[in-house]
Amino acid sequence: MHELLVKGNSLPEAYHNALLALYENNDELPCPDYNTNQKEASVTFVAEKPLQEPMISKLFIGDPRSLEQYRQEMLDGILDFEVERGNWEYTYHQRMEKQIPWLISELQRNPDSRRAVVIIRDETDLDTESPACLQILQYMIRGGALHCKVVFRSNDATKASFMNAYALVMLQKRIAEAVGVPVGSYTHRAHSYHVYERDYDMFEGYIKRIRAGGELAYYYDGDWDEQMEEAKPGIAQMVEELKSR
């Protein structure tokens, strides 16, 4: 199995390098659980300065509203009620929320701590057809900055990984602000970083754009942040409509 490590200054640069590495070094093999094939490798990508502009990749399928909604789901739990109703088995926020306050206090207690870990996987994942993909998050203050290291057991490279990484960087930023330190590096580890056969054409298109060069990222500050802010009322309305059903 291919073991790949790539780096980039910004989040988009690291993500694009991960896509390119996966394209050039993968195994194509069956994925029986989903009745398809996949291209797969174990991939770690590191964004040394994840808040560096431009920080929004053009190579993902979302738009400002979908990215803002996903950020709110991850950080604020706007759809946690679906778990309470029994419609969903879990959300990442629902599994993280009770651990984050302790994590912040631990980092304040001991800035050199190696104990600031959030565990997503739990025993219910043993008896479900959709166990959590995200497994653990670890935060470490080194060199005066808060570094974040996450582990996914499985991660869809073209359709999920950038949105996952963006939301987790926003969580890293929130925790760094609570602790009172700047944001450091973001490390994203996926034991199975993969592309399903139905998305091979999309993957090829992304690789062609990366190899062609040119600007492959949008500015967050003054562009996407404003569009994401404008999307908030619509997202709030959608949440209220779901709650009323």
Could you give a quick summary of the protein structure above?
With about 240 residues, the chain is α/β, with parallel strands linked by helices. It is built from eight helices and ten strands.
Q: Which features does this protein show?
A:
245 residues, 8-stranded mixed β-sheet, two-stranded antiparallel sheet, 42% helix
Percentage of residues in helical conformation: 40-55%
Globally, the shape reads globular
* Overall pLDDT: 96
Portion of residues in beta strands equals 25-35%
The span between the termini is 46 Å
Order of helices and strands: EHEEEHHHHEEEEHEHEH
Annotation, overall tally of beta strands? 10
Structural class: alpha/beta
Major β-sheet profile: 8 strands, mixed
Radius of gyration: 18 Å
Specify the number of helices: 8
- Low-confidence segments, ≥5 residues, pLDDT <50? none
What features would you describe in this structure?
- 42% of the residues lie in helices and 26% in strands.
- With 245 residues, the protein is α/β, with parallel strands linked by helices.
- The strands form 2 sheets. Strands 1, 2, 3, 5, 6, 7, 8 and 9 form an 8-stranded mixed sheet that branches. A two-stranded antiparallel sheet has the order 4-10.
- Helix 1 crosses helix 7, helix 2 crosses helix 6 and helix 2 packs across helix 8 (220-244).
- The chain is globular, with a radius of gyration of 18 Å.
